[in-house]
Design goal:
heterodimer, A: mainly alpha, Four Helix Bundle (Hemerythrin (Met), subunit A), about 80% helix, B: mainly alpha, 2 domains, about 85% helix, disordered N terminus, disordered C terminus
Chain lengths: ~200, ~120
């Protein structure tokens, strides 16, 4: 099918959708998924806010949370957002090497974030402040853990993306998946703003 | 080609502006909490305001949400999600705070009960 035929097919309704129509529809579908994810996170935030004082005689955020650790996690995730942005810019100008290099940097930063979080969770559980200790800690692990799981899935997504760029090159379907990965990754950084503003900062204060 | 080139320049600049704004909006609340420079309620307000602004900055400069170029159905979806979040989160707080107040009335706890009975008379 020639390019002209594709454009013509997009015209009258009832014709089979073109490739770019399909990609736009997928981007919209992914956007809807992100909105539903935002609702899940909002309710986890609400649960946390309701449970934050229910420490059942156990430790509160003041003794458990570390401000430098939360700050390091914030910086890692924020930096990974801008390095992903640079990968998007390289994608737009068709520079395969640039896309791969920035994706590697993004992956390393994201991995550092997940590493810090696992270390924090491990430390809490070792100190007897696991999710079974109190309502406050259950809500904390549910909220922050759900976000951490999302970031971990994002890391897998980045690895798949890199292998697709290597194997298939910067084709239209790969670019379309890359766009959705970008939405996902930036969305997770937005959720993290909520986490440090609702959980860590008021907890330490 | 020329058009896409300028588009790229705009893209990189957009990410850099967003990153700089996000850094400032992260540094302010963290610095306030680290130094205890302000009274607690004021710090909480600053944390909240900085967070809301930073979310808007991310939406604008990282997710490129724009009232004129973003497809209308995407904007409708985000507004719908915002309404749902407002109803569910707001409703949860309403119910739980109301319950909390009623429970405090019913079961005598020293300070709160004394305050309540004093104001009732």
């Amino acid at each position: 099918m020639t390019a002209e035929a594709l454009v013509a097919a997009a015209g009258p309704p009832g014709h089979p959708p073109t490739e770019s129509d399909v990609h736009e529809e997928r981007a919209f579908g992914f956007w809807l998924y992100l909105m539903s994810d935002a609702i899940i996170f909002s309710l986890l935030f609400a649960t946390y806010a309701v449970m934050v004082y229910n420490t059942a005689g156990g430790p509160s955020g003041k003794t458990l949370f570390s401000l430098p650790n939360a700050f390091a996690e914030t910086m890692l995730l924020l930096s990974s957002s801008i390095t992903f942005g640079f990968a998007s810019v390289a994608m737009k100008s068709g520079k395969t090497a640039g896309v791969l290099a920035w994706l590697v940097v993004t992956f390393v930063l994201g991995l550092g974030f997940v590493g810090l979080e696992i270390r924090e969770f491990h430390g809490l559980i070792q100190a007897g402040a696991g999710p079974d200790r109190s309502g406050f800690l259950s809500a904390f692990f549910a909220l922050v853990g759900t976000h951490g799981l999302h970031v971990s899935f994002g890391l897998v997504f980045i690895l798949i993306m890199m292998s697709q760029v290597v194997i298939k090159g910067l084709t239209a379907p790969v670019a379309s998946r890359f766009l959705r990965l970008g939405l996902f990754w930036h969305f997770l950084d937005i959720v993290w703003i909520g986490i440090f503003s609702v959980v860590y900062l008021p907890g330490v204060l | 080609m020329e058009r896409s080139r300028s588009g790229n320049a705009h893209g990189r600049k957009s990410y850099l502006i967003g990153f700089a704004l996000a850094l400032v909006l992260t540094a302010i609340p963290f610095a306030l909490v680290a130094t205890n420079a302000l009274p607690k309620p004021h710090t909480l307000i600053v944390i909240g305001v900085a967070a809301v602004i930073q979310v808007l900055v991310h939406l604008r400069y990282f997710l490129h949400l724009d009232l004129t170029t973003t497809p209308r159905e995407n904007l409708v979806a985000i507004v719908f999600a915002a309404i749902l979040i407002f109803i569910m989160v707001g409703g949860s707080f309403w119910i739980m705070l109301d319950l909390h107040r009623r429970m405090a009335m019913a079961s005598p706890r020293p300070a709160a009960t004394a305050l309540f009975s004093a104001s009732a008379r």
